[in-house]
Design a protein that fits this description.
5 domains; alpha/beta; 10% strand; 6-stranded mixed β-sheet; Rossmann fold; 671 residues
């Protein structure tokens, strides 16, 4: 916090007068001690040391730092004088020399508590107690000494700078604490402003901040932070954020951190604290989730005053009352308006702007901060028409970071022309694409989302033998709709530890919510096998894991695809909860002919290929692709175009891999 120049000047004047008064007190104490050992220093009036300047408030509209610290930490006059004495030895050479002379050691400039008891008025022993403000808030440090009253006292460096008017963050809190500017309701979208008003109403009904419940804002920090700033502005307080997942975990370190944190907020005049966590997505050095739960909960319970806890899910607090509010992204129409406002400032009404904005809002779910940031990035990278064209790609790039560490992104290359399926199955895939393309129209504009929040997710099961095109179909949908496609291996998601599977799935779906990426879950039968009788806790929790995945799929507003090679192994109750089931059959001869006609790229040199004879091979599309690619390598090594002889050699190799004989009927008439 940077103070106004007039306050800094007035504060320095005030501090100089206070130190001058302190010097006079110490001189009298030294003189009296020289004349009569054991005689007490004459008591001075409050005005002697406080050095009140009646014009200070009139000039600056505030009060000196010394007075502000005394009020913030409820210091008694004697405790305030000790603090001033410790500051004096750092700022005034004569005060340091007087302290050294009084203690009979020219090298000992720091005062002891015994010296303060003898030299300062209104002394009381309780000022040195560990629970008293000076030591509780670490305003002064008790250095090593032969006895408690003979231990030197030193002012904390952060407090020292504050008294002279230099306010900065304690270096022990760097990287953990960041002040945020208060905001007004007009700075938020309407839905978030209404939520901020509810939080303010919760706190205003209380007589003091000590009785305030912890407010849990359950959502993304990008949305919670501006709401917290608005709450702080509405109650007339400054706010700051704390990276709660980085605070120390041990009890002693946590208590020290909490004291430093609360001291910092009192010094800086911060009244609202936002504890931000990443909802469990923080990863340790080995890629494992970093544990946060107990530390964050304990810190929220320890901190005094107005505390806001922001994370994705609600947390149970035992030692302090809490109130939870769900924070969603701005509504779709609010996102549209924010996009228009952001682009209007930069490029005005460009061609195709509104259509692009509508498509972006239908697909991506962004915070106001992300919208403004992406808009600024697009303007910096292009001009007018180029800005609108680049928005979709920038949104995708921005939202990939979280999913990229949780799943494998597949770059879709296949199109409808590459996919060979019976007409009924192809029509189902086109219906899936249509629902993805028009879901905002049906859900939001036509009111289905308002009627029921359940079952809005588009879920599908792709079933069929290996190599029949299940992954290719997912690629086709992603390519058609210009969406990212991520493959999630359920074997890496499912954990033997109770509760870990749900956490892994939650991380995946939470990361995908913003971008609406297509999620492809391989080997679904590993999780969705037919349920058996519950015989132990593991059976019960396995069913819970399945139910959780189905619930998230039903709530996910993108497309979630499950694949399986064994549809018969799936529980029929699970199939009922999926919106689409697409069966990928083993291709018949005409379909295999169509696959062979499309398998070679146009740039591949071929000669004398007979697709009808090639279709005699009773293999799936995935095997056909392997044969074609291996044949291409054989031909390239021989510097020849791909011929039937090369394909025959590749087919024999593929059949050997499948542990099947290549029959004469399948290869008859090839060469």
């Amino acid at each position: 916090m940077v103070e106004a120049p007039d306050w800094i000047s007035a504060n320095q004047t005030y501090l100089a007068r206070a130190l001058a008064a302190l010097r006079e007190v110490l001189r009298r104490h030294a003189a009296d001690s020289a004349c009569s050992i054991g005689s007490a220093a004459p008591m001075r009036t409050e005005d002697d040391l406080q050095c009140a300047d009646s014009s200070f408030g009139a000039v600056t509209g505030g009060r000196p730092a010394l007075q502000a610290v005394a009020a913030a930490f409820s210091l008694s006059p004697f405790e305030r004088d000790i603090l001033l004495l410790c500051a004096g030895v750092e700022l005034d050479r004569e005060i340091a020399q007087l302290c050294a002379a009084a203690q009979g050691d020219a090298s000992c400039h720091h005062p002891t508590f015994g010296f303060a008891l003898a030299a300062l008025p209104n002394p009381h022993w309780s000022a040195l107690a560990p629970t008293a403000p000076l030591r509780r808030w670490r305003l002064v440090e008790l250095m090593a000494g032969p006895a408690l009253t003979m231990a030197p006292l030193r002012i904390d460096e952060r407090v020292m700078h504050h008294l002279v008017g230099i306010s900065h963050l304690d270096e022990r809190l760097l990287g953990l604490v960041r002040p945020i500017e208060p905001a007004l309701p007009d700075d938020l979208v309407a839905s978030h402003a209404a939520l901020a008003a509810r939080v303010v109403a919760t706190w205003r009904a209380l007589p003091s901040s000590r009785q305030a419940p912890v407010v849990q804002l359950c959502g993304d920090p990008a949305d919670c932070r501006p709401i917290s700033a608005c709450v702080a502005g509405s109650v007339g307080l400054r706010a700051a954020t704390v990276a709660a997942d980085l605070v120390p975990g041990s009890a002693s370190e946590l208590e020290t951190f909490q004291r430093l944190l609360e001291r910092e907020f009192r010094l800086a005049g911060i009244g609202v604290l936002l504890l931000e966590t990443d909802g469990g997505d923080a990863l340790g050095p080995g890629g494992e989730p970093r544990p946060q739960g107990p530390t964050v909960t304990r810190l929220a319970e320890l901190l005094d005053g107005f505390v806001i806890l922001c994370e994705s899910e609600r947390r149970r607090l035992v030692r302090r009352h809490s109130v939870a509010f769900d924070v969603g992204r701005p509504l779709r129409h609010e996102q549209r308006e924010e996009w228009r406002t952001t682009l209007d400032r930069a490029i005005g009404a460009a061609h195709g702007r509104d259509e692009t904005i509508d498509a972006i809002c239908a697909q991506f779910n962004l915070s106001v901060a992300s919208i403004r940031s992406i808009g600024s990035e697009a303007v910096a990278a292009a001009h007018n028409e180029g800005v609108v064209a680049s928005l979709w790609g920038l949104c995708q790039t921005r939202l990939r970071a979280r999913l990229d560490v949780l799943a494998q992104r597949i770059q879709p290359a296949s199109t409808w022309e590459d996919l060979v399926l019976p007409e009924a199955e192809a029509a189902t895939l086109r219906a899936i694409a249509a629902q993805l393309r028009r879901r905002v129209t049906v859900y939001d504009d036509w009111g289905f989302a308002a009627k029921s929040a359940r079952g809005l997710g588009i879920s599908a099961l792709f079933a069929g033998p290996s190599g029949t095109g299940k992954t290719m179909a997912a690629e086709v949908l992603a390519n058609e709709l210009h969406l990212d496609l991520y493959r999630i291996d359920l074997s890496s998601v499912v954990s033997k530890y109770i509760g870990e599977t749900e956490k892994n799935l939650r991380r995946v779906f939470d990361a995908a919510e913003e971008s609406g990426a297509i999620l492809l879950f391989d080997e679904a039968d590993a999780l969705f096998g037919k349920r058996s009788e519950v015989k132990d806790s593991h059976d019960r929790y396995a069913n819970i894991e399945v139910s959780y995945l189905l619930q998230r799929m039903e709530a996910y507003r993108g497309l979630a695809i499950l694949t399986t090679n064994q549809r018969a192994a799936l529980d029929p109750a699970f199939l009922r909860r999926l919106r689409f089931v697409v069966q990928f059959p083993f291709p018949d001869a005409p379909q295999r002919t169509a696959i062979w006609q499309r398998v070679f790229p146009p740039t591949t040199p071929t000669q004398g290929l007979d697709h009808a004879k090639l279709a005699q091979l009773r293999v799936a599309g995935g095997n056909i692709r392997n044969i074609a690619m291996n044949a291409a390598f054989i031909a390239a090594d021989a510097a020849e175009p791909v011929r039937m002889s090369h394909l025959l050699a590749a087919a024999r190799s593929e059949y050997a891999k499948l542990e099947r004989p290549l029959t004469a009927a399948e290869s008859e008439g090839w060469i």
